[in-house]
Write a structure and sequence with these properties.
The complex is a heterodimer of chains A (137) and B (147). Chain A has 137 residues and is α+β, with helices and mostly antiparallel strands. Chain A has five helices and six strands; from the N terminus they run βαβαβααββαβ. Chain A has one domain: TATA-Binding Protein, CATH 3.30.310.70. In chain A, strands 2-3-4-5-1-6 form a six-stranded antiparallel beta sheet. The longest helix of chain A has 21 residues. Chain A is globular and about 40 Å long. Classes of the chains: A alpha+beta (137), B alpha+beta (147).
């Protein structure tokens, strides 16, 4: 039975819009590229007419010099860009991303795994600066 | 856990641009949206023969599956939308789909697994349709048409 959670959660003590702005700035300062943003709550509200708290997915890519061939490998492309989920939680904001290590045999090449781990570490370090790690992931 | 079964690869007998159009159309037919796509910069593509080939990642999902996945845990959105890798391969186009939830042994966010399985199945259905149509075009209706 799995013990560890696949994702981790950070809490930012600021409302959603402000926290999202801080996230973008912090990621840029950490040399992480945002390949795109998906406003999930808007998509759900527009198509299903259901109101859910604001939720945006930031698509984070490693800095160019460590990207290598990550995204051109099907397994690497499944995980990159890495999704950083920013979601409102009352007056605070929660951020989720994948922290688990993919199974070793899932990756044919060790460099792919190393790059994913490097991206995960960079995200953790960035979020440590602006938020607080929560055990309730 | 079977990682090998998590990877599905399709070889579409069409050139890259035409295949992309077919893929978008087929996904639309099974009520899936391409919510984003980005071309891989040249430094991120594979260079099998020293030459970069066209490559693009499509971000595929549907609002109802997004909602189902996120209803119990926002963390599920780390897997949504699904990434579909489309790469030119000479006169053909390779499409690769990996179920990202099967790459981990760790505990997944509550509610993420089932919607993702169904999303991957629908993408597979769309891609199967493209291959079936291509076969029809090549071999005629005899193989697939009504008796």
């Amino acid at each position: 039975m799995a013990e560890e959670n696949a994702t981790c959660m950070y809490l930012i003590d600021e409302p959603f819009a402000k926290a999202l702005k801080r996230m973008r700035t912090a990621l840029a300062e950490a040399n992480l590229r945002i390949a795109g943003e998906i406003d999930l709550s808007f998509r759900i509200r527009r198509t299903l007419l259901m109101n859910i708290p604001p939720c945006t997915v930031l698509l984070a890519l490693p800095s160019r010099h460590i990207t290598g061939e990550l995204a051109s490998d099907p397994r690497g492309a499944a995980l990159t860009p890495l999704h950083v989920v920013v979601s409102a939680r009352g007056a605070r904001t929660e951020v989720h991303f994948l922290k688990a290590r993919p199974q070793l045999d899932a990756f044919l090449e060790q460099p792919l795994l190393a790059t994913v781990e490097q991206l995960q570490r960079a995200l953790s370090q960035t979020l440590e600066k602006i938020g607080m790690c929560s055990l309730g992931a | 856990m079977n990682v090998v079964s998590a990877l599905h690869t399709y070889l579409v007998p069409q050139k890259f641009d035409r295949a992309l159009k077919s893929i978008r159309g087929a996904l639309n037919e099974v009520e899936l949206d391409v919510v984003g796509e980005f071309e891989l910069p040249e430094d991120m593509r594979s260079h099998p023969e020293g030459e970069a080939s066209a490559s693009r990642i499509l971000l595929v999902s549907s609002p109802i599956l997004d909602f189902e996945a996120m209803a119990l845990a926002r963390a599920s959105a780390v897997f949504f939308p699904l990434h579909v890798l489309v790469s030119a391969e000479n006169e053909q186009t390779r499409v690769s789909v990996v179920n990202p939830t099967s790459l981990f042994e760790a505990r997944l966010p509550v509610g993420a697994g089932d919607p993702m399985d169904r999303l991957v199945a629908r993408v597979a259905m769309a891609l199967d349709c493209i291959l079936e149509r291509s076969d029809r075009a090549l071999y005629g209706e005899g193989k697939y048409g009504k008796n």
